[in-house]
Amino acid sequence: MTQSAVRQPIPVGKYFLDRGKISQQQLELALQHRSEFGLKLGQSLVELGFVTEADMVEALRHQARFPCIHLTGGIVDARVAAKLGEVPSRRLRALALNQIAEHTTVALEDPGDPVALEELARVLGTRIFPVYAEPSVILGLVDQTFGVAKGKAAGHKAPPAPTRTPTPSPRTTQAVPRDEHARESIPDTDAAPDDRAVVECLRGFLQQAFEQGASDIHLEARRDELVVRFRVHGGLHEHSRLPGSWARPAIACLKALAHIDGRYDEEHAQREAPVAREGSIPFVFRRQNFEVHIATLPTLHGESAVLHVLGGGRLQRDLEHLGLAPDDLARLETILASRDGLLLVAGPAGSGRTTTLNALLARLATADRKVVALTGRVGSELAGVLYVRAELRAGLEPAARVDALLGQDPDLLVVTDVERGVARSLVDAALAGRGVLAVQHARNALEALTRLVHFGLEPYLLADVLRGVVAQRLVRRICADCKTPTVPDEALLTRLDAPRDGATYFEGEGCDACHGTGFSGRLGLFEVLSVTSGVRRELEKGAGLEALTNAARADGYANLREHGLRQARAGLTTLHEVLAATAGG
Ligand SMILES: [Zn+2]
């Protein structure tokens, strides 16, 4: 018996074995325990105390076989739970959560159990959408739903049902309507999940995202499902799948929380004009301030959304730990020592500019300095910085917005997007002796500089106020668990202009820890252009790119690609990553 069990593939057992969570001996004990008591392997591992329920959640999530949900009372539709009934719920350790069209979502401790699924389908008369939840949580909610144990076979007597609405209204956070009787007549088949269920579910996603350090949550409306994916350290992983009917209420709920006017959208939806919307939700988690920036877009099977998580510890990094090369860091420190003038942070979107800006601000926002920041999104709020929301002053000309900030008499002015309209105001502020820290969209430091000239700023003025430019990119970091030396191909070395000195390069082969990608986390590539006397002389002359580059090089400037090569030779990233990040710039 035990032997035949051993011969079968046992994914859960293998998962824990591979990770050293259990020993071979423990696995065999658990297999024996399993057959003695007629349990699942996972159950017996938990019962024997070899792994915790949380480990099981991780295992199932890792295997991505079933969605794992953060089960709370708010998710349970008591009428649907009652339809399954107390006795089967207890016996199968299952709780029916909600029913949408011909699918009932059921939380089970073993969502892959074919016998249980068959019985559920028969009793409920619908197709089953199985999801995993911790058994103790399921049983706790079974107790709560049916009254603690020895219930009077509450089979068909529904406990008070949570109030249902066909779709959540934009007033999600407010009281739900009272006219339950009117709602009761709405057939279950096209009913959507309860407001509270949606809010609970979204809250669960956000909490897990914060805990895992995810930067983004993707809600994607597919044909029959709402697929939820998390981006953690640059890699995208599926988190869970919800019934397709959750898509609309979930997005509506997010929009309501972000104060995006839902009705406006309905009108547009009717005319089938795709409208992308943006908004943000402030969020406090474990006493840290976060902001979740939301962008929605109508897609083929409904609206999809991306939630970008800003703030908290994630973005707080010291300047010393950003990953600048030592001589770049030294040059940047020299620039920071001068309290006036313009310092630019340059890079394309998604290059980690916000992280760098915050690290710089954390250094510059000292008690003796008034810092005012004009920003579209408030990510992590730094103490000592007065944030002004750009959209609050929408309607004003960009330059007028900067002038309004200057009215606050800042020592340091921070602008998160240098555009043509504000460039001159920033230079004027710097000429007046204020410090200006600004983020600019540019591929590299020299392009940031020439772009300012294209904005109509006189090079001699720039020579006077510009202190320096930090430019950057993000590349993927090689997974430490599967890193192996590799012989790079000649063409690649040529394209990167890498020295032929027989240096060793690395790549990740792909392992469980990195989900087979060979990468884990990200890494910044940086270049720091310091406006030294040599560079200033060229600027004053109105010199071209080549002369500027030469002058900068004479003073130690190394470009993004050179830093990338250094990081590749240090075994931190691959040559392909460096090429991809620095191609065309
Ligand atoms: Zn790996």
The general outline is elongated
Order of neighbouring strands in the sheet with most strands: 12-11-13-14-10-15-18
Mean pLDDT: 78
Radius of gyration: 29 Å
Q: Any key phrases for this structure?
A:
alpha/beta; Beta-Lactamase; Rossmann fold; seven-stranded mixed β-sheet; six-stranded antiparallel β-sheet; 24 helices; elongated; disordered N terminus; binds zinc ion
3D architecture notes:
The strands form four sheets. The protein has a seven-stranded mixed β-sheet with strand order 12-11-13-14-10-15-18, with helices on both faces. It has a six-stranded antiparallel β-sheet with strand order 6-5-4-9-8-7, covered by helices on one side. Among the domains are: 2-63, no CATH class; 195-314, Beta-Lactamase (2-Layer Sandwich); 316-474 and 523-559, P-loop containing nucleotide triphosphate hydrolases (Rossmann fold), CATH 3.40.50. The longest helix is centred in the middle third of the chain and has 18 residues, at 195-212. Mean pLDDT is 78; it is low at 1-10 and 149-191. It is α/β, with parallel strands linked by helices. Helices cover 40% and strands 23% of the residues. The site of zinc ion has 9 residues, from loops.
